[in-house]
Predict the structure.
Amino acid sequence: MNRVYIKTYGCQMNERDSDAVAAMLRARGYRIVQDEEACDIMLLNTCSVRDAAEQKAIGKAGYVSHRKKKNPDFVLGILGCMAQNRGAELLDKLPDVDLIVGTQKFHQVPDYLDNLRAAREAGVPIGETIVDIAEEAGSQNTIRDHLETEERQISAFVSIQQGCNMDCHFCIVPKTRGDERSRPMDDIITECRALAQRGVREITLLGQIVTSYGRRDYAHTGGVSPFVQLIEKVHAIDGIERIRFTSPHPRGFKEDLVEAYGRLPKLCEYVHLPMQSGSNRILKAMNRPYSRERYQEIVDSLRAVRPDMYFSTDIIVGFPGETDEDFEQTRELFEACNYDMAYIFKYSIRTGTPAAVLGDQIADEVKEHRNQVLLDILRRNSERRTAALIGTVEEVLVEGPDKTGQHFTGRTRGNRVTIFDADPRLVGQLVPLRIERASVSTLYGELILAGVGTEAS
Ligand code: 5AD
């Protein structure tokens, strides 16, 4: 009765929240299982950013709720962004769901499951669905300390901030994740130190808008923003070798952050910089407070500090009113930035956002065409960039055995996945890897072990 299967939709923040729920449930004696057929409790941790993501989770929940006919004790829960966005209204489509828990209440999941189980064991008839999507002050501090103790993890996500106040007109996140709230710097540093002691070597700082970290809680010191101050503190932790963060806002790339790339070697030269559109008119309609010129300037300034900088981005095609000329501006800037990776989305109407009520929605075929144009550019770019890596030597952080268990895997500073042969003693070390060949998304190579240290010999 205590086997839990958690399925996660959406972003890294959701992955992080699912890990935290799993850790809390294990501490209560629940078993987390990987086989969805072999669970007593299924939790869907959902995404609302586009309609397709919501439909996927609703479809899954509808399908899974048939299991209740055979097994009335089976528990089905919907957690996270769609729970927050839709609340009890989900029961119109999914009357058999037992639990609906929003983004500020993940830490209550163990109590709610305990209550549901106790009721079933006592033979009490199943009552109302538990719906908890209330706001909770301080909830940003409840998502922490999630690692398994048995298995060494090399790379970890650390939540630093939740929510967003930017009010981009396409975006549902302010509704699903609430107002911007930052965790105290000391708490984050304590967590990072503990992770380093448990063997973690790479930290990814996570939040909906990390560059705004602590802006209401901490002062700038000597022109350095609280976010850069936080990076400096993580950088000073022994054992942490690499620092990444996601997602930032272009507005956060002021002089202090750009300059940080020049002086903080642990800060990996990979920046996810959401452009959304290359047309000033559309950026304005989206309520994105920068121009294409400013965006290009940020990219140039980062490449001036780190010529080997890798960039990825998010683009929305088919925002209401986007003309061929607007799209051409996006295409041009997209090409000019020479991205390593990009996430391209067709605009999806999100009820309750300002853009939802705009006229001049774009036809699906047009969105699809624009999507393909950018995907083609990305494919060519990425092939060219991959080809340029073959024969070079990249620093790789060895994470552990790959999926097959035959080889090892790790990522380059530019966040490319690599596969190679290694010794288990190299797990957690930074080693030089000569890149020999590549598939679409993976690099294959051979370690250059001379000078790596005694453990390698
Ligand atoms: N339609 C399509 N894409 C969206 N995104 C956010 N809202 C929407 C929407 N309504 C994209 C943005 C954002 C990413 C996480 O999802 O590009 O950066």
User: Anything to note?
Assistant: The chain has a mean pLDDT of 94. The chain has four domains: 3-132, 152-268, 295-387, 393-447.
